[in-house]
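We now fix the convention by which a protein and its fold are recorded. The integers have meaning only within a learned vocabulary of local backbone shapes. A record is reproduced here so that you can trace the correspondence yourselves:
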Amino acid sequence: MVPSAVADDVFYALSNSTRRQVLEKLSVGPATVSELAAPFDMKLPSFVQHLSVLERSRLVTSTKQGRVRTYEIAPEPFAVAEDWLTARRRLWEARLDQFDEYVKSLKEKESEP
């Protein structure tokens, strides 16, 4: 079972398209705040709030050298989302398998003389 608070933080962080785009950029490699903020049309303080959400969810980590803060992706928390989604998928696959068996049994009964 996925710890609820961790899953909440991860799904909250992933719920925003700006944060997902930042994660996509970081999947290529580490980047500075200014590199990450460049494609977005928003003020830096607003953008930094998105980075804070990502860091609180532990999807990214940052290091600071002088005045430059660099972010990199931390892949481990993605497993929380993947585990939750996998559990839901298995549940629905089992339900659909049961429904399929039920439909097959109905068809077999209909075809009996």
Notes: The domain at 4-79 is CATH 1.10.10.10 (Arc Repressor Mutant, subunit A). The CA atoms of residues 70 and 80 lie 24 Å apart. The beta strands are 31-32, 60-65, 68-73. The chain has five helices and three strands.
